[in-house]
Each structure stands twice: as C-alpha cells, then as structure tokens.
Write a structure and sequence with these properties.
Aspartate Aminotransferase, domain 2, single chain, alpha/beta, five-stranded antiparallel β-sheet
C-alpha cells in the first residue's frame, strides 16, 4: 500500500511511515497489526479518543439522513444541536457562531470580523504563534520560518509582541509577565497605534511555538489593554480547547472572556469542523454576504461536534485531563532529574511539554531523536517549538493512568538509550 505514496504531494512531512487501518481509544493499529499508543491525537484533534462509540454512532446515523446541506440555502437539525451544545460550555457572552472547516479558516474569519467591527486595519500577534497556513494566517504565524519561507510578501498590517515564555528568557514568571506587558504597550506606541489596531490574537497556551503556559495574569492584562483602547481580544483556542487543559477552554483558567474565540481540532473528534464564537453586539457590523464558505457547518461534522461535546461533559473528560495531566507532569519531572538534557517540563492538563537543551542551547536533535525512537517502541509523540527542541505530549482526554505510566516508561527507556549512543 505504501508504494502508492509516490502520488502524495511531497510538501507533507511525516512523523512516521505507519499506514493505519483503525483506531480505538488511545491506540492506533497499522495494517501489519502493530499497536501504537497515540499521544499526538492528530495534533490535539481526537480528544475523545479514536472512534468513540457515541461519536461514531452520531456520524453513521447522520450520514444516512443528510450528507450535505449548504448553509446559504438550507438549515439542518445537527447545526442547531451543535449550537445548543456549544452554548452550554462557552461564555454566555459569546452567543453567535460561524462555522468553517479548519482552524485557519476560523482565524481568517475572526480577523475579518474584527476589522469590520472596529473599522481598523491592523492585528497584533505574539512570538511563537501558529494561526494557520493560508496567506493571511501564515503572516500571523511566527513559530517557524518554514511556514513563511519563499511565500513573501505576506499580508501587511500584522505586528508581533513577545509571548511571556519564562524558560526561554531565563526569568521567573513575574519578571517575564511584566516584560511582555511592557513590550506590548510599547508596541502600541511605536508600531501600531491603538486607534488603528483591530484586534490582539493570542493562543491562551502557546501551541506550535512550544506548548508554553503563560504566567498567571497574562490574559487578564491583555483583556485590560484591549478594554482600555477599544481593541478586540481574539482567543485562538484551536489547540487548547474542548477540555485539553482541564477546562473546556484555556481562557477559563483566568476567568477571561474574549470578544471572539476560534475553535477547531477537538471540536468534532476528527471530522472537519471549526467555529468562530463572538458577541451578539457584533452581528449588525458583520456585513451579510461578506464572509461565507461552501462546506462550513456540514451536517455530519455538526452531528459529530454535538456528540463530542456531550461525551466530554457526560464522561467528565476535562476533569480526567486535569488528573492525568498532573500524573504526566509529575512523571516527566522525575525523569528530568535523571536526564538534565530535559531543560524544562511544563504544561496544563493534557497539554504538556519537555524542552531539550544542551549547554544552554536548544537541542532539537535530541528531541527529534527521542520522538523517532519512541515511535519505534510504539509510542507516538510530536516535536514543536521554534528550534524543534520540544517534545509535546497530547494524550486523548480518555487516557488512563496505566497508559500514562506506560508512555513515561517508554520515554525513559528511549532517553537511556540515547544517553548510551
């Protein structure tokens, strides 16, 4: 079967060469019957695990009723079911929804909305950000140059502020927080004036940029700055949403309500779906017909989305994420004591990172080798970070205690082998 790979575009990168036949819970099975413990979740997508029975049932039933209903033309029941479920987990202020297919589409839509609402042209993002690969979102993405290389010139009017990444700067959280806020305020005086800034777009937990949890109070400071200047706060919850951090959305850890929120990945357990949630006050300012899409709000995807939210609530998967996340971080910190090449262990819920450094410098080679060797031992992990020196841990929210222990055991075994190479 892999011989047919010659037809697949070479622009795709591949963490493994595994050809997967099926998935179940925290595991993937390849065509040779090999079983992998999947701590990638398709990059934070399968929060309910692979092929959760209730999600599969919802997809099957809906596929037999209606595969497609274009929202400019008709409405459908799964759409209303999904919106009802979203209303139970989102801040009550965010009660208007627009549906697309991917995270990048959601971010594009959120920026277009912010520009129409405010009448302002500019956007602020943060160092290490990842917001997508379309022409606009690529310009908003600063996690790696490869996402932007040879695509210049990019969309103008985008300005970048420091993300409060304490380990990178080598400071404690208080110093880092104060620095990031000070630099953001300076940006508003030196590069984009408040009256020309439509929105600040932030990942409440930095994703592709290194799985960085900002110091407590950062989101609250952003909220205040936005309120002071009439700037909209856009929370990109595409990777951190739907229970991954131990709350349904990462902004809830600080009690912050953004003006706009983007969601995708974990929203529908693997079906292509994304969503923008925003305040009703903005509805009259988003010109009808100025944004849209053919496949957004697909009935089957909406059915999967509604089922996904019900599963997370009924099985309390966000709470399991908290407990298993604590177990994972504790285990990783114990391993760190033996292997100082792990410079930092950080995370929140089931969104954790091990950052590799050697002699004070990023060690991407060891991180990449660790992920590759783990795959050979049937544990799937991914790297991230600007220098590729972070191994990110993204287990499904249905993960069990023994599966965390198994993954930690494999990781420690890998590091012991790297050490002796």
């Amino acid at each position: 079967m892999n011989s047919n790979k010659k037809y697949l575009s070479s622009v795709w990168t591949h963490a493994t060469e595994a050809c997967i036949e099926r998935g179940e819970g925290a595991y993937l099975f390849d065509t040779a019957g090999k079983k992998y413990l999947d701590f990638t979740c398709g990059i934070g997508v399968t929060n309910t695990g692979h092929c959760h029975p209730k999600v599969v049932q919802a997809v099957r039933e809906q596929a037999g009723r209606l595969l497609f209903g274009q929202l400019n033309i008709v409405l459908h029941r799964p759409l209303f079911d999904l919106m009802e479920e979203l209303s139970t987990i989102l801040p009550k202020e965010l009660d208007q929804y627009f549906f697309s297919n991917s995270g990048a589409e959601a971010v594009e839509g959120a920026v277009k909305l912010a520009k129409q609402v405010t009448g302002r042209p500019n956007i602020i993002v943060f160092h290490g950000s990842f917001h997508g690969r379309t022409h606009l979102t690529m310009a908003m993405t600063t996690s790696k140059t490869v996402y932007r290389a040879r695509y210049q010139p990019l969309v103008p009017g985008i300005f970048t502020a420091p993300y409060p990444y304490s380990y990178y700067y080598g400071w404690d959280d208080t110093v880092t927080l104060n620095f990031a806020v000070k630099e953001l305020k300076r940006l508003l005086k030196s590069q984009t004036a408040p009256e020309e800034t439509a929105c600040i777009v932030v990942e409440p937990v930095l994703g592709e940029g290194g799985y960085v949890v900002p110091p407590a109070g950062f989101l609250q400071q952003l909220r205040k700055i936005c309120d002071d200047h009439g700037i909209l706060l856009v929370a990109d919850e595409i990777q951190s949403g739907f229970g991954r951090t131990g709350e349904f959305f990462a902004v809830q850890h600080e009690g912050v309500v953004p003006d706009i929120m983007t969601m995708a990945k974990g929203i529908a357990s693997g079906m292509a779906l994304s969503c923008i949630a925003y305040k009703k006050d903005f509805a009259s300012k988003w010109i009808p017909g100025s944004h849209g899409g053919t496949f957004g709000g697909n009935p089957v995807a909406c059915a999967a989305g509604a089922a996904t939210i019900r599963v997370i609530k009924e099985e309390k998967l966000h709470i399991n994420a908290r407990e298993r996340g604590k177990q994972l971080l504790q285990g990783l910190r114990m391993i760190q004591q033996t292997y100082p090449v792990i410079g930092d262990v950080r995370g929140i819920g089931c969104m954790a990172a091990t950052e590799f450094t050697r002699n004070g410098n990023p060690d991407g080679e060891t991180a990449k080798k660790a992920a590759s060797m783990a795959a050979r031992k049937n544990l799937l992990l991914l790297t991230c970070g600007t220098c590729g020196n972070v191994v990110r841990w993204i287990p499904p929210l249905i993960v069990k205690s023994e599966e965390i222990d198994n993954a930690l055991g494999i990781f420690e075994e890998v590091l012991s082998e790297i050490r002796t190479d």
